[in-house]
Amino acid sequence: KKDIPVANFIMHEIHCSRNIEVCRYCSELIAKSEMKTHIEAEHAQVTCKCRMKIEKCLLKDHEASACPLRPALCQFCDIQLTFDKLQDHEIYCGARTERCGGCGRNILVKDLKEHPGVCG
């Protein structure tokens, strides 16, 4: 996948065909002697804590952005929950009320950010 001078091309082609393979999973060029290690390190199937089977190389992205058991913070109380429980918690948490120090009214927690603009 690189430009090779014409004078070196035949030797380069022989070297590559003997020593390099294309990974059948990710199309990367890997030394034949390292292919087994590459497949085990990058493409072996692992099970996430959410019980989803996924390639090892994709696990970090899955855990960070798609796993229903990834950590998430409530926008109202900053408690850490799993993502799959966040929505129900925020509905409950945002429906609580707190007394406004300015007007003395009880304000829904979900409306506290906008309240100063209409307070008084």
UniProtKB/TrEMBL annotation:
The record's GO molecular-function terms, alphabetically, read: zinc ion binding
Q: Which Gene3D superfamilies match?
A: Zinc/RING finger domain, C3HC4 (zinc finger)
Give the matching InterPro entries.
Innate_Immune_Apopt_Reg (IPR051986), TRAFD1-XIAF1_Znf (IPR049439), Znf_RING/FYVE/PHD (IPR013083)
Domain (TRAFD1/XAF1 zinc finger) spans: 78-120
| One GO CC term on file | mitochondrion
Question: What is the superkingdom listed in this entry's lineage?
Answer: Eukaryota
Question: Does the keyword Protease feature in the UniProt annotation?
Answer: no
Q: Name one GO biological process term.
A: negative regulation of innate immune response
Report if keyword Chaperone is assigned. no
Query: Which UniProt key words apply to this protein?
Result: Acetylation, Metal-binding, Phosphoprotein, Zinc, Zinc-finger
Report the function annotation for this chain: Negative feedback regulator that controls excessive innate immune responses. Regulates both Toll-like receptor 4 (TLR4) and DDX58/RIG1-like helicases (RLH) pathways. May inhibit the LTR pathway by direct interaction with TRAF6 and attenuation of NF-kappa-B activation. May negatively regulate the RLH pathway downstream from MAVS and upstream of NF-kappa-B and IRF3.
Name under which the protein is recorded? TRAF-type zinc finger domain-containing protein 1
